[in-house]
C-alpha cells in the first residue's frame, strides 16, 4: 500500500470548526458527558501541543493535549485523538500520536495520561495506571486510565486527583 501524502501541522484557531465537526462525526453527542471532556472543557487544550493531519487540503485527523495536574505534578491529558472514518486504520492516528508525544517530550513535558484502549496505546508507551493511584473528577473505567512517561521514572511517586491547570 502506498503511504498517504500526509501533512501534520500545529492546530490553529482556523481549524476549530472543522475539528468540531470531526469530533461530532466520530464521537457523537455522548462526548460531552465523558469525564475527560469535562476536564478539557474547564481548561482548554494547549494549541502548541495539538496537531492536525491533512491529505492535501482535507483535514483527516486531529490530536489535542491539555495541561493538567495529577495532585501537584504537572502532566498532559491526551485526547481526543480522532481520524475521519474513511481514513482510519491506515496509520494516521499513529503518526499524530508519535508527533504529539515527540513535541511534548521536546518541550520538557514528563507525563501524559489518557482514557483509552490499552491494546492500542501500549505501542506508544502507555500502560494502565495502578488502581486508585490517579483519580479523575468523574466516572472512568480504571482499566482505561493510562499513563506514559516521556522521561523514564517520571510517574514514580505520582498520585492524586487530575485537575486542569494553566
Automatic annotation (TrEMBL):
Source species of the chain: Xanthobacter flavus
Upper classification of the organism: Bacteria, Pseudomonadati, Pseudomonadota, Alphaproteobacteria, Hyphomicrobiales
Highest rank taxon of the organism: Bacteria
The protein, known as: N-acetyltransferase
Record keywords, A-Z: Acyltransferase, Transferase
Domain N-acetyltransferase: 6-147
PROSITE patterns named in the record: GNAT
Annotated signal sequence range: none
GO molecular function term, any single one: acyltransferase activity, transferring groups other than amino-acyl groups
Amino acid at each position: 500500500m502506498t503511504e498517504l501524502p500526509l501533512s501534520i501541522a500545529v492546530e490553529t484557531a482556523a481549524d476549530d470548526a472543522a475539528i468540531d465537526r470531526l469530533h461530532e462525526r466520530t464521537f457523537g453527542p455522548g462526548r460531552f458527558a465523558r469525564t475527560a471532556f469535562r476536564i478539557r472543557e474547564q481548561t482548554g487544550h494547549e494549541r502548541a501541543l495539538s496537531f492536525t493531519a491533512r491529505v492535501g487540503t482535507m483535514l483527516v485527523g486531529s490530536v489535542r493535549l491539555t495541561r493538567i495536574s495529577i495532585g501537584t505534578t504537572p502532566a498532559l491529558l491526551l485526547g481526543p485523538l480522532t481520524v475521519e472514518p474513511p481514513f482510519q486504520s491506515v496509520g494516521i492516528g499513529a503518526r499524530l500520536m508519535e508527533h504529539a508525544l515527540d513535541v511534548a517530550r521536546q518541550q520538557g513535558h514528563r507525563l501524559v495520561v489518557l482514557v483509552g484502549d490499552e491494546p492500542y496505546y501500549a505501542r506508544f508507551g502507555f500502560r494502565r495506571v495502578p488502581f486508585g493511584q490517579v483519580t479523575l473528577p468523574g466516572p472512568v473505567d480504571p482499566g482505561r486510565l493510562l499513563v506514559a512517561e516521556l522521561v523514564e521514572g517520571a510517574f514514580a511517586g505520582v498520585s492524586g486527583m487530575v485537575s486542569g491547570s494553566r
